[in-house]
Amino acid sequence: MSMETAVFAVFALLALGSSLVVVAHKSPIYSTLSLVLTLFSVAVLFVLLGAPFIATLQLLIYAGAILVLFLFVIMLLNVGRQEGIPGGHRAQLVTAILGALAFAAALWLLLLPTLGTGNHAPLTEELVSLSGLAQELFAEYLLPFEIVGLLLLVAVIGATVVARRPTPEELAGGGGGSGSPLSVSALDDLEAADSTAASWAADADRAGGHARPASFPGGTGAGATSGGVAARTAAPGARP
Amino acid sequence: MSGIHLVNESMSVPVSWYLMLSVALFAIGTAGALTRRNGISIFLSIEVMLNAANLALVAYSRQLDQRTGQILVFFVLAVAAAEAAVGLALFIAVYRQRRTIDINRINLMRH
After folding, report:
1. Kindly report the CA angle at B28 between B23 and B31, in degrees rounded to 5?
2. Which chain A residues touch B80 with a CB distance below 8 Å?
3. Fold category of B15-98 in CATH
4. Residue closest to B4 by CA, chosen among A111, A47, A41
5. Closest by alpha carbon to A58, among A69, A47, A48?
6. What is the per-residue pLDDT across A34-67, written as a single tens digit (0 to 9) for each?
7. Which residues of B touch A152 (CB under 8 A)?
8. What architecture is the A1-79 domain classified under in CATH?
9. Global ipTM
10. Which residue, A62, A26, A72, is CA-closest to A42?
């Protein structure tokens, strides 16, 4: 067994095992840390395939930036061990696994003919070289490159708008966030304006009760200004 | 696994093995995305699927001896970063409203 085969075997098994931990572990934090291991193993396989630059990107961007963002959000929201795969959904679990296996088989049958009997050239200097990659990226694929930059800009602005807290002006004026550009922000404004009513609505909804605005405690208990807000907040929980 | 010899013996690890690993990783990610309840865990499963796709792209780049696959991986990485940023921001906004990111309880649009 050559060195390359040994490295492939070790890191392929590592990638498979750690990705199983990613999807099966109860705690999202352990899933994230296990995903770091998966990404590292796949980066090693990228190097074996003659793509060291992609492997570097994978470690820097994925493991270094995106997963840190995931960890940050998990710890910010403190969703540690909120859920596992509940025992009551055994049928769903079996169905999902069977579906995934069938999908894998179909995908493999689809990919198999594309390989052909392929004469497999040894790794060329040209494929590995970074300057060749840069020339192709910035000459032939310049427009997609710029569009990706625009996409990242839009994503940053969108994430900021969606996740921000409403400003005091929006809470005071704007009629409970009607001037807000996004419905999520509008809901957020409502909650900030009358957090008790919102949490009552959420509790009623969570308990499976069909909260009606008429029987909603916030409708009578809350003040004159927040009464309307409470009724509107209860509306998402009410079923038609 | 050793029954498949699609490429000649000039290379010790055939590209088909990488593709097989990619398919397996993608299936694992699919199963995770279908079974998990926690929104962030679903996101992590989707990252596994994206990475499996990247592995397939690089494997084909090796097979065809062309760089286009690697450039596609570059774009996929950028899109994954944008998706993670917006998705996690959405989860923060939903959590602020509902105090949960359990997808069985986020049913505002179901009814």
Report:
1. 125
2. 62, 66
3. Helix Hairpins (1.10.287)
4. A111
5. A47
6. 999 999 999 999 999 989 999 999 999 988 899 9
7. 78, 81-82
8. Up-down Bundle (1.20)
9. 0.86
10. A62
